[in-house]
Specification:
This protein is α+β, with helices and mostly antiparallel strands. Helix content is 28%, strand content 9%. The chain has helices spanning 2-6, 35-53; strands spanning 13-14, 17-19, 27-29. Strands 1-2-3 form a three-stranded antiparallel beta sheet. A hairpin with a 7-residue loop joins β2 and β3. The longest helix is centred in the middle third of the chain and has 19 residues, at 35-53. The termini are close together.
Length: 85
């Protein structure tokens, strides 16, 4: 949560999902947020934290959805450090 907040992601939103204003380690939705919104928001937070601090955040949850695994749930992209700290 500390890195997410330091990267300026509190309140960041995609569709109906946003990073909590109270604790940056939580994603909340407004009742219209979809799994796609949440996965896209997670990916954007990962990118911002990686760009600013060189740390690739790994989700604490597992993807059980249908279809392909969203990027936020995959291994770190080339050039990222590959693990949360």
């Amino acid at each position: 949560g500390r890195l997410i907040e330091a990267a300026g992601c509190k309140g960041l939103a995609v569709g109906g999902a946003r990073v909590s204003d109270l604790h940056a380690n939580f994603i909340v939705h407004d009742g219209t947020g979809t799994a796609r919104d949440i996965a896209a928001l997670m990916a954007e937070v990962q990118r911002r934290v990686s760009d600013q601090f060189g740390v690739w955040l790994l989700p604490e949850i597992e993807w059980w959805g249908d279809g392909p695994i969203p990027g936020a749930f995959r291994a770190a992209p080339p050039g990222a450090d590959g693990g949360a700290r």
